Amino acid sequence: METISLLAGGFQTLAANPVGILWIALGVFVGITCGAIPGLTATMGVAVFIPITFSLEPEIALATLIGVYCGGLSGGAVPAILLNIPGTPSAMVTTLDGHPMARQGLATRALGWALVASVVGSFVGWVALVTMAPVLARLALNLGSAEYAALALFGLTIVVSLSGSALAKGLLCALIGIALSMVGLDPTTGEDRWTFGTINLFQGISIMPALIGLFAIPEILMAIAAPGVQKRLNLERSRMIPTLGEMMMQKWNLLRSSIIGVGAGIIPALGGNIGSILAYDQSRRFEKDGAKYGTGRPGGIVASEAANNGVTGGALIPLLTVGIPGDSVTAMLIGGLMIHGLQPGPRLFEANGDIVYAILAAFLLATIMMYLLSVVGYRYVVRVLNLPRHVLYPALLLLTVVGTYALNRQIFDVGLMLALGALGFIATLARFPVYPIVLGLVLGPILESEMRRALLVSGGEWSIFLTRPVSAVLLLLSVMAIVGPIVVRYMQKSRASRNASS
User: Fold this and answer.
1) 163 neighbors 434 (Cβ within 8 angstroms)
2) What is the largest distance, in Å, between two alpha-carbon atoms of the chain?
3) What backbone phi and psi angles, to 5 degrees, belong to 185?
4) What is d(CA 472, CA 477) in angstroms, rounded to the nearest whole number?
5) DSSP H helices in 295-434
6) H helix or E strand, kind and range, residue 471
7) Per the structure, how many domains does the chain have?
8) What is the pLDDT of residue 231?
9) pLDDT of 216 strictly over 80
10) Cβ proximity of 148 and 172 under 8 Å
């Protein structure tokens, strides 16, 4: 009851400040825009907005930044569905089913499913944040380096298993991604690796140039090289939001994926990348049409978007309760909190409870605004699919260059993006999956650093990964994720050969 009364006070604080509500709406709009433009992520949106919020009251300033956060994760689905170019790293999985739906003339429906899943994921994350924050944060802190390393490996094996019949190609691409993640300074010794004496590579290969290069450039080049006259798509405009009956058919998928996203957000350094992969994999296993995932199924979109938006509430739990950021955006939010005199940690709720609950109330308000703004805007953005090819793709190519340069204002990043784009284009032509390369690049540093840290703690004993129950279970699941498809394929071939002989 005390929590409810404190939340009610938070809503009253917001209601007494109409200008503050407009600021939250502006934050959500900026977040959606940053997410929808490849290269301009929610992290960048929050970084840009922190100085703008200096003059605002603490609760309104933090609520605005959280609005940017929510909107950014939701907006990443727009280019993922329309152009097969994820606007944010966590939207990579959305491309698997989102873009095929768009090519079938169902772009509006795909965006509708993404929006519903985003709202449900954010709401579940908000509920977890309000009700279970301290308990969940303490549980997450009990995980050690062995568990983090095993979880990163599990995420990689899931991505490889999604390669279908091209399992060997998926494994090779994952290894290429891990190799790329080792470029830069060694996290333990500080020695430079594969930098070729270039100071620009000392910090490693940034994820956004890699993401834009490996996804956007091959897509643009393949579209330009495609022969024939561009076919106009018959875009569905009558209904974007799924009916209540359709949502109920996805109710378990929505709930399961949102909870997975919350869990991934709670564990520091994981975030939406792993959350969306795990949710997609579980949805593919449990849903009736899971075997058809990758061909344009709403369940795939629901799993990815519910998970990466559930991360929002989950990542705020360790931030507010123990002062540990759950992902890169919440790392930025720490600066926003401290600028306004708020010290994240166990005493935050006690010392500044009124401000904290006003922020929590604003989180729910930002979720509602995200829905309203997207319902209006999505009906117009789908028209990008029918723009003339000679206009659309040069504009996209220019946008990739500008977005990449805007990250660090370095022309080197643009060159790196184009080089990785050439790699992605060659891989696409050779029918090698690009997703494992990107996920290897994302999860490689976690896998390497946590594995080495675990070995240092154990004195070089590899048994630490088997003696700790959580890591042992994750390693077993990793083996099953790789071996399982091979066994199933062997059994199918044996059955087919027996049927042919009979």
Assistant:
1) no
2) 80
3) -80, 135
4) 9
5) 298-322, 328-339, 348-351, 353-381, 389-408, 411-429
6) helix 469-501
7) 1
8) 52
9) no
10) no
d(CA 40, CA 404): 8
DSSP state of 91: G
R_g of the chain, CA atoms, integer Å:
22
Tokens of 223: 């579209």
| Residue 217: domain span | 2-501
Q: What is the mean pLDDT of residues 463-469?
A: 88
> Are 345 and 67 within 8 A, CB to CB?
no
Structure token digits, residue 403: 């977005």
Q: How confident is the model at residue 255 (pLDDT cuts 50, 70, 90)?
A: very high
* Cα 146 to Cα 225: distance, rounded to the nearest angstrom: 46
For position 141, what pLDDT does the model report?
62
Tens of pLDDT, residue by residue over 14-24, are 777 788 888 88
Q: What residue type is assigned to position 338 of the chain? A: M
If one counts every other C-beta atom within 10 angstroms of the C-beta of residue 176, the result is 17
* Rounded CA separation 390/397 (Å): 11
C-alpha span between 310 and 329 (Å, rounded): 14
- pLDDT for 120: 92
DSSP string, 211-249: HIIIIIHHHHHHHHH--SPPPPP----S--SPPHHHHHH
Burial environment of residue 101 by CB neighbours within 10 A (0 to 12, 13 to 18, 19 or more): buried
Rounded to an integer, what is the distance from CA 203 to the centroid of its chain? Answer: 22
Which carries the bigger pLDDT value, residue 209 or residue 323? Answer: 209
SS3 289: coil
**DSSP element (H, E) containing 343:** none
Q: And the tokens for 164? A: 């279908």
